[in-house]
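hey
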């Protein structure tokens, strides 16, 4: 037997085996990289081909945390309205509204002496209420209910709207309308504080993609995303004076469809879709 020739054959075989294994390892590494970037490519594909965007998508803010909110009391230790509310009522002889407190002072209800016309633009509506509402500059227009004859505003925290599932009198500012004029309102006010740990947020693009993947934005409805904003959302909890509520950062997405305007909340950390119908 020619051992020199046999040795050469073995060396060549081992070299070929090394090349084969090296090629397999390279292919696996490449496929792994392709898999890692697939979700982002999928998001871009969905946004570009299946979802129409008619707004500038905001960047996810940094140092965002869960916030804790607690309803303040509008009355002092003797049960009387705070001085700031008495000033909103107006001086004697020139009273512009009467304000009553209930729910242990955590909710007030106003009746205007002279109803005021409703401005057409939401920003003007908010401006018109500033002279009547406690810290009215901290509220933002949310929605109008033609059937209930109400306009709802939400409180803001660091310029982001704070939404709360309405249960009892937990809503923040509900304005009453009659014959095109504002006749009064019901209000509660939360004091907010941030948690310690900042959260990693998904992007607005990812939130929209989640809606598409869950068939919330079917092509048959011709969905057009009109507005996206980072907000805070609470769906559960007892909104009483001595118990705090916790609000999670959420992407608030408003979409125009063939069936009218729709709104969605997507948890900005988990990506789960939430609605005001959740968690009774």
């Amino acid at each position: 037997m020619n051992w020199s020739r046999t040795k050469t054959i073995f060396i060549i075989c081992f070299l070929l085996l090394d090349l084969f294994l090296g090629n397999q390892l390279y292919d696996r590494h490449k496929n792994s990289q392709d898999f890692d970037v697939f979700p982002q490519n999928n998001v871009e594909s969905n946004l570009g081909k299946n979802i129409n965007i008619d707004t500038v998508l905001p960047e996810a803010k940094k140092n965002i945390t869960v916030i804790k909110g607690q309803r303040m009391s509008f009355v002092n230790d003797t049960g009387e309205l705070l001085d700031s509310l008495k000033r909103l009522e107006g001086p004697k002889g020139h009273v512009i509204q009467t304000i009553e407190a209930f729910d242990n002072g955590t909710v007030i209800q106003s009746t205007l002496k002279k109803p005021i016309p409703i401005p057409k633009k939401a920003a003007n509506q908010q401006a018109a209420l500033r002279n009547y509402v406690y810290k009215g500059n901290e509220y933002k227009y949310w929605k109008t209910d033609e059937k209930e004859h109400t306009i709802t505003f939400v409180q803001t925290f660091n310029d982001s709207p704070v939404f709360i599932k309405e249960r009892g009198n937990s809503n923040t500012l509900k304005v009453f309308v009659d014959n095109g004029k504002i006749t009064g309102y019901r209000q509660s006010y939360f004091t907010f504080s941030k948690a310690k740990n900042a959260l990693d947020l998904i992007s607005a693009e990812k939130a929209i993609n989640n809606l598409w993947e869950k068939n919330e934005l079917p092509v048959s409805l011709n969905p057009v995303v009109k507005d996206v904003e980072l907000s805070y959302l609470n769906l559960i909890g007892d909104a009483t004076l001595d118990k705090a509520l916790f609000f999670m950062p959420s992407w608030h997405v408003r979409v125009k469809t063939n069936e009218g305007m729709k709104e969605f909340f997507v948890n900005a950390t988990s990506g789960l879709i939430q609605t005001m119908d959740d968690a009774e």
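The first strand starts at residue 52 and ends at 53. The radius of gyration is 28 Å.
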